[in-house]
Each structure stands twice: as C-alpha cells, then as structure tokens.
Specification:
42% of the residues lie in helices and 27% in strands. The chain has 230 residues and is an alpha+beta fold. The strands form three sheets. A four-stranded antiparallel β-sheet has the order 2-3-5-6. Helix 3 crosses helix 4 and helix 3 crosses helix 5.
Length: 230
C-alpha cells in the first residue's frame, strides 16, 4: 500500500449513529411488506417488582393511505436518528437535505432513492404506536403505557421548491426538508435511552440480498451485548 493510501485510510472517520432502545426491543413493522394495517406484538417478561411474569404489548396501526412501515423504513428511521445525533441532539426539529439522508443510509442519492425516502417518511409519520406497559421511561425508571407517533411536522421539499430556492439563493446545497420528533421520542433521547450504532457495519449488512432479518438481528444483539456490558 502506498504512503498516500495509508494516510487516507488513517483519516477515515468511523460513521456512528444512535439507536433508541425501545424501538430495538419491539419490531418496527412487519419483517416483510404486507397489506395489513395493524400489527400486534407481545413479549413475556419477568417483572422484578411484581416478582411474576407480565405481558408487554405493542400495537402498531398504519394509515389508510400508507399502511404499516416496511423493512426499508428501518434504515430510513436509523438515518433520521443519525442526523439528530450529528446535530448534537440540539433540537427535536431536524433540518436536512435528502442527499444527507441518503448518505447516512448508504444509498446512491438519485431520484429513485429520494422517492423511497419520501414514501418511508410518510409511513413512519402516519403510524400510531400503542405501547401497553411496554415503553421504558429511562428518566423515571419504569415501564409505561404510551400511545404516540414517532415524528410530526414533516416537510419534504418538492423538486420545484428546490429549484426555486437554488435560483433565488444561488446555492446548490439546500436543506429544505425537516421533521420533528414527538415529545415521547425526544424525552427518550434526552433521558439517554439510546446506544451507539456502527452505521458502516449496518450499511454493509444492508447490501445483502436478504437483509431484513440480519439487520434486525444485528440491532437486537448489539443492544443485548450493550446491556450485558453495563
């Protein structure tokens, strides 16, 4: 390896994001695309205070138009968390460009990817999550029942809007898209119920032909090993 190549290799900065751990423990939508609009998941767990088995339940309801999140939406949601991490968790409102989101996922930024992102964000924003005695509140150290959406106030700029902004400002790079984390999600971020995620490894896994199961296994095992080490 030439000296210049070695120097470039040393300068490579690891690409890390953050993963909210409630959304690791429960699946974010079905593992394969489906026409159903609701999904119910139950976990049996031992409650240390009650000293008995309890049922923790998640009910997801998709919108009539967009349905439940699809496997690809997992990657988009992780990229949204990474952009929030890159911004230093400074605000629940995250301003971004579709190009930035593509780079965070590892997708080639083109028209097809932009369309997939918009559709994914529509499904994510349109899904209602009902956690029954299953949402861990890291600030209060207890499981709670919560019904909420993950994001709100979504704005994905159109091609015409982007072109107008470029003409007016003269700048090619435009951050005209945004979303806002809802209060429940933002509180979990602020309470530190998040863990570091190796996005480069995630991107490599996502390049596989049958990526859905390995991606979810990586995240859940990464969480379990993280939990065991603390």
């Amino acid at each position: 390896m030439a000296a210049g190549d070695r120097e470039k290799e040393v300068k490579v900065v690891p690409l890390f994001g953050k993963d909210e751990m409630n959304l690791v423990e429960f699946p974010f939508g079905p593992i394969t695309p489906t026409g159903v609009k609701t999904l119910e998941v139950e976990h049996q767990a031992f409650d240390r205070i009650l000293k008995r088995e309890v049922t923790r339940q998640l009910l997801m309801t998709g919108s009539d138009k967009w349905g439940l999140p699809r496997p690809v939406d997992d990657q988009v949601l992780l990229a949204m968390k990474k952009l929030t991490h890159d911004a230093g968790f400074a605000s629940p409102k995250v301003v971004f460009s579709r190009y930035q989101l593509c780079r965070a996922i590892g997708w080639q930024p083109d028209g097809r990817a932009y369309k997939r992102i918009e559709e994914s964000v529509d499904r994510i924003a349109g899904t209602t999550f009902k956690f029954k005695d299953a949402w861990w509140d890291n600030g209060e150290k207890e499981y709670k029942s919560k019904t909420f959406h993950l994001i709100t106030d979504v704005e994905i700029c159109s091609r015409d809007q982007l072109d107008r902004s470029r003409i007016v400002t003269g700048r090619t790079e435009q951050q005209l898209c945004s979303f806002t984390w809802t209060d429940v999600m933002w509180k979990s971020f602020q309470d530190g119920f998040i863990k570091t995620l190796d996005m480069q490894l995630l991107q490599r896994i996502a390049q596989g032909r049958r990526r859905e199961v390995p991606l979810r296994l990586y995240r859940i095992l990464d969480k379990r090993f993280w939990h065991d080490s603390t």
